[in-house]
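The protein record quoted in full:

***
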Amino acid sequence: MGDEFDVAQALRGGIPDRARAWAFVRDFAAAWAEPLADGASTRAEELERAEEMLGLTLPTALREAYSLLGTRHDLTGNQDPLLRPSELFVHDEFGGVLVFRSENQGCAFWGVRLRDLGQEDPPVFVQSRDGWVRYLERVSLACVELVLSETLLGSGGRLYNACELPASLIRELPSRFAPVEFPEYPMCGEGRVTRVLVFRAGEALAARRTE
């Protein structure tokens, strides 16, 4: 699984736009799970019902994400899931936030500010101890992170070890792991920074270093 797919190589040069984000998601799904098929998309009627219920229009990037990944819960719903269209809601704090992802116990949320809904690929914010903070600059970037982290956390513990690293191992990170050209982002509910790394030998999907 994923033996011939190098995450660091695939993300070399970053993700400058939505097209690159969705291309990465397709390639990643094909290598690490099952290829995305037409049946994975959320039906347009579901998105339209959600918009009607909420009284707003979803950003283009969020509609594209649902059209690409809407029913692929193996890629989006193992720990902190992408909400189904019928579960979308507006959080009243921070001037109003359209929430599209929830921490598994409802302790934190990811969303787009109502004031930004007119942008095609608006920034995403997440709740933390300090209130709502900037998570990633674009919805499409947040969806790439979603797929990476949900795949990692859905592996039954085979691909990750959620623990603090001792100082000796932290010193070994530069030699054993390669950084991925992906922006740093805050850890959900905490003030620490997350960086995405991969084993240089391609032995596993990713590791997170937090500070």
Notes: The domain at 7-161 is CATH 3.40.1580 (SMI1/KNR4-like).
